[in-house]
Amino acid sequence: MLVRHAESEIPRPGGPDEYHRPLTATGLAQAASLVLPRPTRVVSSPYLRAVQTVAPLGLPVDTVHELREWDSGLQPSPDYARHYAASWADPEMARPGGESLAQLTSRAVAALTALADGGVVVVGSHGTFVARALAGFGVSTVDWPFSAAMPMPAVYRIRFSAGHPHVSGPGLGGDAA
Predict the structure, then answer these.
(1) Are the C-beta atoms of residues 167 and 158 closer than 8 Å to each other?
(2) With CB atoms 3.0 to 4.6 Å apart as the test, which of 75, 104, 105, 130 could cross-link to 136 if both were Cys?
(3) pLDDT digits over 154-163, tens only?
(4) Which Pfam family, an example, fits this chain (predicted)?
(5) Residues 115-125: pLDDT tens digits?
(6) Which of 130, 88, 124, 132 is nearest to 106 (CA)?
């Protein structure tokens, strides 16, 4: 179960860094009301907002650095959407100090595949990470508009059968891969 975090504080210059930016009061309520199957394990990005989203499940939350959000190489900016759209148009492009979306896709697929152990693993992460993971697992309808419109929180189910991922969740219309 791949979970995009609930509503979080908006990034802002001088605000909490990515590791410490929390959920809003609404986001905490959203996290508390998530309905998921009883997991055998809960893992998360080390970013606070992702941990806060999956913590109400009642199991210890293991943090895994590879589940972190995309490092776009951008500082918080009101015109981030223009930059993100350019990155989606050219996934190989990386800004100085950042990673490309292609690199994120490889990281996301490898991290999630390594967690597939046959149990119900709940993974807390982030919008761009989730979108690129879905794209990496072959969901052809995932693009910048899909990523930008992804709800907070959003839950996607990835089932591995004979080594092949089958993905379902919001905006996908059932199994998409």
Answers:
(1) yes
(2) 105
(3) 999 999 887 7
(4) His_Phos_1
(5) 988 789 999 99
(6) 132
